[in-house]
User: What shape does this take?
Amino acid sequence: MKRTVLSVIAALGFALVLVDNSHAAPRKGGPSDEQVAIMKAAMPKQASAKPKKPRKMLVLSYQSHNHGRFAGEKALELMAEQTKAFELTFVRNTKDMAAIMIPEKLKEFDAVCVNNSTGGSGKAANGKTLVENLSDYVSAGGGLVGIHSATDNKFGEVFGGFFTGHPWSGKVAVKIDDPDHRLTKVFGGKGFPISDEIYQFAKIYTREKLRILLTLDMDIVKKRGKRADNDNAIAWVRKYGKGKVFYCSLGHNPKIFLEPKLLQFYLDGIQFALGDLEADTTPSGPLKTSGAGMADPKKLLKDGYVSMFNGKDMAGWIVPKGDNGHWKALDGVIDYDASSEAKGSKNLVSKDKYGNYKLHIEWRFKRTSGLYPMPTILPDGSHKKDANGKVIITRKPNADSGIFPRGYGKAQMNLWCWDCGSGEMYGIRLDKRLSAEVRAGAVPKVNADNPVGQWNAFDITVTGDRVTAVLNGKTVLENSQMPGIADEGPIVLQHHGGPIGKTGKFSPASSLVQFRNIYIKRLK
Assistant: This one.
């Protein structure tokens, strides 16, 4: 008989479930044979990190909606079998849970997984509450994994958030809140649609203690929840004492466990909690809202602005010849993947030309594309140097695009991840033929960028050869001069970087970018 999980450990002193489904009929309420076959094909075939020692994980899977719970159990069984990253012991009733959730038995396991189970309010065999024993276990260095309703549970205290309802059920959009994190690597920085029950959290939930990985994309999802800040997390990690915690609320819908990327995400999260995969647990910190400066279309239109993008197609824009669909209208935004196949310029150019104007444009990077060697730009436009006069270079995550006022590349206002912030006019700052005052004027006064993945709003005023730019409500350029700019020209959105040969990788300054809410008002 082929075993897929850890057998009953006699020393534990009570009956756990020995799992062998190789010849069994489908479990009532569980995945069908067809779904199991799909799940097996979608499952990672090897561990993401080599286990430092044989790993054992206790799975508490005792009560909740059976469809998600049973699918989660099967997914964990197949994951353990195919990757050899850990062995499993299941507890499927509260009596056995009370018996095993005591220090001398918990120490046999490297992590505890709460799979789609609610409650958790009882006492353990030693007289302490289940939550107290779990807290002590994780604090001492044990790992903790939570799937879906693990936070609809007293155990939410250790996970870092309590379920307070699920306003969203059905098709929604997931945003990669931390695209550079090791555990989100599988998503390639790209958000995705999903059909599932999505939780909202309150009480102890705070970004001051959690590293948020995935969130509900409130720029796409129309229905609001109860949180005033619209911060609806889906997955996170944290340190709890000496222990590591991974939680993901996806898993009510059993089809979640048929998705290859989500199965990889869960495997990586489990290996993190077990201690075999390193990942950053530094708290995300306060939510940096992207609301400042965002468009009120009705107000802009009333003030004399006109829309440059209808949200449906590329009317009003000149797509590079031979682009082959890389600049495109997608879900109400202009989406670009830095991969235009045009032979000449790959930039997106407005059909109309403008003289003096006010431009409102919102943008965000979908993810960074690699580590870029960045100098530190000083207020006078020069670069910071070390004691030997050498420019100090630091490699940091980056993405890159730009906005050309009147089509003037020299005055391109950089959109990037450099420390000085977006709005910098590269060609003017580095032109040593220009005066010190003009070059310094091309340096942003403040870094006003929102984090990668969040929307930013630029309000740019161009009059004569001067530009003032306000980013997310903060002035970054003020009456800065653009010597040599034409009297009239188009609005240009920049292509930068792109794929490196046939490697599938991007250069570390690629324009993986989106634009929306583009409005312009001509000035005299």
Notes: Confidence is low (pLDDT under 50) at residues 1-26. The first helix runs from residue 33 to 42. The radius of gyration is 27 Å.
